[in-house]
Amino acid sequence: MTRQVAQKLGQALLVLLAAFTVAFVLLQALPGDAVLIKFLGSEMGLTAEQIAELRIAYGADAPVWEQYLHTLGNFLRGDFGYSIRSGVPVAQLLAENLPSTLWLALLALTAACLLALVLALLSQLEGFGWVRGLARSMPSLFVAVPVFWLGIMLIQVFSFQLGLVSVIAPEPWEELVLPVATLAVPISAPMAQVLIRNIDAVFGEPFVAVARAKGARHQWVLWRHVFRNALPATLTMAGVLFGELLGGAVVTETVFGLGGLGGMTQQAVANQDVAVLQAIVVLSAFAFVAISLLIDLLMPLLDPRLALRPAGAS
Amino acid sequence: MSATRRSLLAAPALIGLARQAAAQGAPVRGGTLIYLEQQTYTNLYPPAGGFYPNSGVLNQITDKLTYQNPRTLEIEPWIAESWTVNATATEYVFRLRPGVTFSDGTPVDAAAVAKNYETYGLGNRELRQPVSEVITNYDRSEVIDPLTVRFLFKAPSPGFLQGTSVIGGGLVSLRTLALPFDQLGDATKIIGSGPFVVARQVLGRELVLNARQDYNWGPAKHPHQGRALLDTIRIIVTGEDSVRIGGLLAGQAHVIRQVQAYDEERVRSRGFQIFAPSTRGVNNSIAFRPDNPMVADIRVRRALLHATNAAEVVATLFSANYPQATSVIASTAQGYVNLADRLTFDPGLSARLLDEAGWTMGANGVRAKDGQELALTAYESPPQPRNKDTLQLVAQQWARVGVKLNVLAGDLGSRTVDSLDPARTPVAPAMVGRADPDVIRSNYYPTTRNVLLQRGGVSQRVQSFVDPELNALLEAIAAETDPAKRLALTGEVQRYIIDKAYVIPLFEEPQVFAAAPRVRGFGFEAVGRPSFYGTWIAAR
């Protein structure tokens, strides 16, 4: 058990190093660099010599391998460098933007899980055929709604028309209401779909037939047998979606003017702010790795068949 | 036609002013104003303040040595009570106002002012602080007494006095100047002597400014004196156009920057105010890079100039707040001369010029010479209003005379690199705002913005193009100390640039803001940067 966990941790570290390296190489391959873009930008009007001097001051003229080792060393010491675009340490940018994105992602994921659960339950409702049909067609609709459009619609209706919540300078409690709703809708769609399909599949399994033959009622079978078997795949899905949420909140954050990792990434990409991008890639890789590790460890608790076997038993 | 158009254009602005004057009661002190910005500020080192989101912050928290009256463009006293300039414009002496302090309590005295200008004039290599674009030929400063400072220049620098009034000349505390450039994007570290101070920031999202209670050194002739009327300004970044406008109309914000031309009517029809101050600089234009053989021929450039219908661009994409260009620089800029008769839309002339230059119409509707099609490429410039639409409309206009214009979006890196290469970008959109004749020099001179990409600038890709006659004229502007002669030279440069058809001016670019009906006294510095010093919110 311990050995397998250690093995998984080692793999995770390798993935992180690979992400760092690939990101570094790709960012180097882009035309131009942040120093050039910042100082050549029309806002400053510097001369050729002044720009050349600044490039030297920023170490943008050093050989690539030297820059790589330098940056890697700094990362290991927890120094992510400066954002050339914003003129602040990357660590400060992250510290100010990460919490709001984490909150948004966490709440949106929770809301999406609830929504998916409700849809899945409705899809199994006895007696109301039209409700079942409706619940089953919702995921396709949800996934088809553009987040951008949904966000603007929610703002226009609930904030600007009805005046229920403020989006411009919201109180803390109202700040995340509409963004969470906006984000939860598309995220819930794949989860609901997987959950519904799995429930249907599990209902077809022999052991369900056995349970029914023993006289179990539909609800009892659903809760005691089917749900437990249908959940693991949905959980994996939720894990992957959470990782995507962290970066994928770009649109929501932009529409609602929330600061956050999404907006920060978008700005960094637009301005080729290499130090910021490097940090974001490593952070995202870290989030993905940590979550899949967590799910790997959590899964056996839900499904004993997946329990880690003692070393050598396979 | 031109005269009628101009008076029509002026009408909305006048009505706006009249309405505001009528509603002006006794100013109310206090309150919080919510100002929506389209983009977040970046680095707040004052010489980097040209970026509009930066200047929206810097103009509230820093003071300048002098104040350029936005109406008359005269230079008036501010932190400097008086000044003298020697005959060759190589020596400036400023006498400072006593009792002025930075918000950290340190005095704005000769030593602090000298250090500011040492930094802006020479840069600080160790701290990576770059020099300011508006200060040329700077040599050194001398502290004569605690309130008198002298600046010396290696060569005449007649633009310097106006340069002390611009955003880039904002004075900051010695503590701020001791920080490396990479930390100056943190607004809480920018310590100025202005009417507002930074209270709180959430990077990329919001900046809160509070009025300074003891502020008593506004521009000497400003209608408002004493502390700012507002207590607090909340600058909130709201990137999405529809949310900015919706928020304003729904009463959730007071002032917004960047109103698209197509939204103006909607805002105005609801009784809200539109402000469109001119940026008074080089017009929004399309510039040629004559190093590229396809546009090296003056006949081709002239043909494209006459194939461009700027009136259609303005009528289709913009509003009355975007006057059609009549010269290289705006009609509100210093030294402007009206060259409308040389900027006519004349497709017939255009076709003749292209025929003469040997570009014959091909079967596919694109002209060609020696097997090469007359196809040009330009990158859109996102900071300029509706730039992609503008370029695409111009592309349609050029297509009618058989010239192809490819409009590329591209990432910033490719755009930056390709924009330095005349072979890849034979044409490029350009504009810059500054209320001094120096603006025309800094736009075209090889070692500064170098819009035409001459040899001797940042770009290593330029083969041979250099125009010594143009550069001599530009140098003369930079060196001419007699104001009248300086303006005359500015006129000459405009004629020269249009005669050579180096640029196609399109329209005079404003900065468009909208404000709630209750907002009063919302002002601008000379090139359209917002000033909340005299702003107040009327009672309902």
TrEMBL record, chain B:
The family assignment reads:
Belongs to the bacterial solute-binding protein 5 family.
GO BP terms: namely:
peptide transport
Q: Which PANTHER family match?
A: PERIPLASMIC BINDING COMPONENT OF ABC TRANSPORTER
Which top-level group of life is the source organism from?
Answer: Bacteria
Q: Which UniProt keywords apply?
A: Signal
Q: Where is the signal peptide?
A: 1-23
Q: Which residues form the Solute-binding protein family domain?
A: 74-411
Any Pfam family hit: SBP_bac_5
Q: Give compartment(s).
A: Periplasm
Q: Know the name of this protein?
A: TIGR04028 family ABC transporter substrate-binding protein
Q: Name one GO cellular component term.
A: ATP-binding cassette (ABC) transporter complex
Q: Which organism is it from?
A: Neoroseomonas oryzicola
Keyword Signal on entry: yes
Gene Ontology MF, one? peptide transmembrane transporter activity
Main localization of the protein? Answer: periplasm
Quote the InterPro entries the UniProt record gives.
ABC_transptr_sub-bd_KPN01854 (IPR023920), Peptide/Ni-bd (IPR030678), SBP_5 (IPR039424), SBP_5_dom (IPR000914)
